[in-house]
Design brief:
Distance between the termini: 39 Å
CATH superfamily of the largest domain: NAD(P)-binding Rossmann-like Domain
Largest sheet: 7 strands, parallel
CATH topology of the largest domain: Rossmann fold
Number of strands: 13
Radius of gyration: 19 Å
Bound molecules: uridine-diphosphate-N-acetylglucosamine
C-alpha cells in the first residue's frame, strides 16, 4: 500500500508521514517546499520525496503513479492570507484540490482523504457543531474548503471515488511556525514566552476553542485512510476550553506565570467553538486524545530542546 501525501513536508503533513511510516505504509511526499521543509521529514527506506506543485496537473498525475491512497494536505492555510489575496488562495486550495481529484479519478487510487476545516461552518449555532451544521464561511479560506467538500461529494457520486474530508479544529504542536502573523494562538504564546514577552489576549479570554494536538491529527489521518467512512467528518477532541483556561494550563506546564495583556477582540472572531465527535467515533477511538496539559508540556519541552 502506497500513500501519496501532498504537503507532506509541512506541519500536519510531516507528523502524518511519521505516523504512516510507523504503521508500515510506503509513503511518497509531494511538496513544493513553499512553507514545508525537508528537515521536517525523516530519512526512511519507505519514504520518497518529490518536489512539485499541486497546481501543476502533470506533476500530480506523475506523483500518483503506483499509488493506492491519497492524503491531500497541501494548501494555503492562512485565513488572513486568503482575505488579502483571494485569487492566490483559490488557485492553491480549489484548483490544486481539483487537480488531485481528477488525477486520482483517472488512476488506480482507491481512496482520498483530505484536509477540510472547521472554518467552513462560520458562526456556530447551535453548539456543539456536527457535520450537518450550515456552512456559512467567513473567509475565502473557509469558502474554498467548503467548495472542496462539495467537489468531494460530487466526485464520489459521479465518479465513484471514495473520499473523506476532515474538518480540523484548532491544531497545535511542534513545527507550527510561530513567526507567521497568522500563527495559531498556542504557538504564538509559546514563542512569546520564550522571548520573555507578555502574551496578548484579544477580548476577555472567555472565547472557547477545541485545541487538538497535531499527533492526534496524524493518528486521525491514518485511521481515516483505513476507514470506509466517506463524506465529511469533524476532527477535534470534543473538549473545548477558554483561552483563559489554556493560559493557566500553559503557565502550569512552564512553571512560570504568564504576563497577560488584553486587547480589543479580533474582528470576525467567533466566540464559542466546540465539536460533536459522534462521526469521528466511527473512525477512531475518541477517548485517546492527548490532554491539553500533556500536549502543551510536550510542546514546551520540544521547544526548549530545539533552543539548546
Ligand atoms: C482557527 C484556525 C483557522 C480556522 C478556524 C476554524 C489556526 C491558526 N487558525 O482560527 O485556520 O479557520 O480555527 O474555526 O488554527 N488570539 C489571542 N491572541 C493571539 C492570537 C489569537 O487572543 O495572539 C485569540 C483569537 O482572537 C481567537 C483564539 O485566540 O479567539 C484562537 O485564535 P487562532 O489560534 O488564530 O485560531 P482561530 O481564529 O480559532
Amino acid at each position: 500500500m502506497t500513500v501519496l501525501v501532498t504537503g507532506g513536508a509541512g506541519f500536519i503533513g510531516s507528523h502524518s508521514v511519521e505516523r504512516l511510516l510507523e504503521t508500515g505504509w510506503n509513503v511518497r511526499v509531494l511538496d513544493n517546499f513553499s512553507s514545508g521543509a525537508r528537515k521536517n521529514l525523516p530519512t526512511h527506506d519507505a519514504l520518497e520525496i518529490v518536489e512539485g506543485d499541486i497546481r501543476d496537473f502533470d506533476a500530480v498525475r506523475l506523483a500518483l503513479e503506483g499509488v493506492s491512497h491519497v492524503l491531500h494536505l497541501a494548501a494555503q492555510v492562512f485565513v488572513q492570507a486568503s482575505l488579502e489575496n483571494p485569487p492566490n488562495s483559490c488557485s492553491i486550495n480549489v484548483l490544486g484540490f481539483v487537480n488531485v481529484l481528477q488525477a486520482a479519478r483517472t488512476s488506480d487510487v482507491q481512496r482520498v482523504v483530505y484536509a477540510s476545516s472547521a472554518a467552513v461552518y462560520g458562526p456556530p449555532q447551535p453548539l456543539p457543531i456536527d457535520e450537518t451544521h450550515a456552512c456559512q464561511p467567513m473567509s475565502p479560506y473557509g469558502l474554498e474548503k467548503s467548495i472542496n467538500d462539495q467537489y468531494g461529494k460530487l466526485f464520489e457520486q459521479e465518479f465513484f471515488l471514495p473520499l473523506l474530508g476532515l474538518r480540523y479544529f484548532n491544531v497545535y504542536g511542534p513545527r507550527q511556525d510561530p513567526r507567521s502573523p497568522y500563527a495559531g494562538v498556542i504557538s504564538k504564546f509559546i514563542s512569546q514566552l520564550k522571548q520573555q514577552q507578555s502574551v496578548t489576549i484579544f477580548g476577555d479570554g472567555t472565547q472557547t476553542r477545541d485545541f487538538i494536538f497535531v499527533k492526534d491529527i496524524a493518528r486521525a489521518n491514518v485511521a481515516a485512510l483505513q476507514s470506509p467512512l466517506t463524506g465529511v467528518c469533524n476532527v477535534a477532541t470534543g473538549k473545548s476550553c477558554s483561552l483563559l483556561q489554556m493560559v493557566q494550563t500553559l503557565a502550569k506546564c512552564t512553571g512560570q506565570p504568564l504576563e497577560v495583556v488584553h486587547q480589543a477582540a479580533r474582528h470576525g472572531d467567533i466566540h464559542f467553538s466546540s465539536s460533536n465527535n459522534d462521526r469521528l467515533g466511527q473512525v477512531l477511538n475518541t477517548q485517546d486524545f492527548t490532554s491539553l496539559e500533556r500536549g502543551l508540556s510536550l510542546l514546551v519541552q520540544e521547544t526548549e530542546e530545539s533552543c539548546e
